[in-house]
Amino acid sequence: MRYAGMSDKITSVGIYEYNPMFDNQELTAQLIAQMIWYFVDGYYNRKSDYPIVSEKDFTKYIVNIADNEYDLTFWKSIKTGRWWVEVPFIVQQRFERHQLVPCAYEDYEAAVKNEVPDKWLRIFHKLG
Description:
2 domains, alpha+beta, 32% helix, single chain
């Protein structure tokens, strides 16, 4: 829940199906209270550094990998040092879009060494 609260993309969160009649020793109520606390804590610790918000606060790195159809585009936040990579996918067999995926500096280093990062491959196959 903390990471959900920290996400710049999330707009709402819900906790459903709680029934106090079946809550043995109020353990579920205590867990829900902790979940809410962690979500709020994450919300107040947001970095507001998602690359689409403002490109001026980011450094863009484009890496060409041999035998790969796509160039890999990495974004690094100047403010926090966090990294993202763009993963392309096709919408309705006509339009190409990109999903920004959080990644690590090590993923960028692998791309510079002409290796497609595992995270990029997993997301690419999942979206494809």
